[in-house]
Structure formats: structure tokens, C-alpha cells
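Supplementary Methods S3. Complex input for the SN-glycerol-3-phosphate-bound model.
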Amino acid sequence: MKFFVDTGDIAEIKDLASTGLLDGVTTNPTLIAQSGKNFLKLIAEICEVVQGPVSAEVAATDYATMLKEGQKLAKIAKNVAVKVPLTPDGLKVCKALSDNGTQVNVTLCFSAAQALLAAKAGATFISPFVGRLDDVGQDGMLLIKEIMDIYTAYPKTIKTEVLVASIRHPIHLIAAAKMGAHVATIPPKVIRQLYAHPLTDKGLAAFVSDWQKTGQTILDAA
Ligand code: G3P
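Predicted complex, serialized as C-alpha cells:
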């Protein structure tokens, strides 16, 4: 499973990239606003730090302007994935850009029918928002299961990858991985939670303490 980080914070991206576990980055207008940075410059900077896909979202909602914005964003770097909303115009832009070899991430997906349309429009990634579905009393992970069932039923024709978005906690991620979802975009805070277990901390403290009792060092040993 590929791990993308869902943030516009370049310091976080650099830190997480240094782990060697980061496969890509997703941003959205909210995250760009939170960064306080110039959008185009920030995307260029992120694309230098991370080799994998970096999602940059269009701002317009009409076909002609979205297409121009998408073409401009795609020119920033080879690894830009243009993010478009799941609307009729958004999917037209998806088709036009993907036909020209640009990676496209279709965002704001909340139903299996929408995911099927995005696949037919040639999306590289479909982004179903699991946390926001949970927030309104629907089962976000059930949507991932439905999309995976549909996409895997057509292995020869559907190449779109399921990019699980709006992840709020590690349980979302583990459930998505068990379903074979291709990608998860994860907030930095949740990535850090993945490392944590109190028994790891407790066990390590005991090992460090017991090792000190031996009076030995590994590096000075003959
Ligand atoms: O970037 C899209 C998605 O991951 C947003 O998540 O937490 O704002 O619902 P959230």
C-alpha cells in the first residue's frame, strides 16, 4: 500500500520524506490556505522533495477554466497529479488531461457510482473521503469496500487506484489496507500514531535499563 501525506506543510513533508516511507503528497485548497504559502511555488517545492505523485487541486469549477488551470499545474513538474472535483465538468477535465498523459486525482468522492464514473473518465486516482462520511453517520469504509469490489471486477479495463482520503485515525488505514486499497493519504498526526504503542515504549525502557546493568557497550566491544 502506498502512503501519501495529506498536508501543505513543507516542513512536515521533508521530515516524513526522510523516513523513506513516503510515496506521495496530497494537498487541497484548505491545506494550501493553512500553509499560508504561494500555491504554485509550494507545489514546485514539494515536487522536488517527493518523487511520487503530488496532488495539486484546481480552483475553478467550470470546464474551460479548470482545464486551463490543470494544464498549468501539470507543467510545474512531471510528478504533479491534477486534482479535480467529482462533478460533470470535473470528469470532463479528467478525461481531457488523462488522455494527454497527465495524472489526475478525482476528489470529493462519496459514492460507488461516482467512483465508477471517475474510472471511466480515466482517473489515475479516485479519492473517497471516509472520515467525512463517518461524520454524517454513513460508513466510510463500506464505500471503500464497494469501490474495491467494483474496480477489481474489471482488472483489464479499470486502472484507477483507490486513494483513501479523509483518514482520521489508524483504524481507517488498517481497514483500508485489509481491503487492498492502493493508496492512503494520511494526515501527519495519524502517520505518527502508526508508530506508537505503549508496550513498545515500556518494553524499550526495560531493555535500555537492563542493558545498562551489563556495563557493556556494543561499539567499544572487540
Ligand atoms: O485531502 C482530502 C481529504 O483527505 C480531506 O480530509 O479530514 O478534511 O476530511 P478531511
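The beta strands are 2-6, 24-26, 54-57, 80-85, 103-109, 125-128, 161-164, 183-186. The chain has a mean pLDDT of 98.
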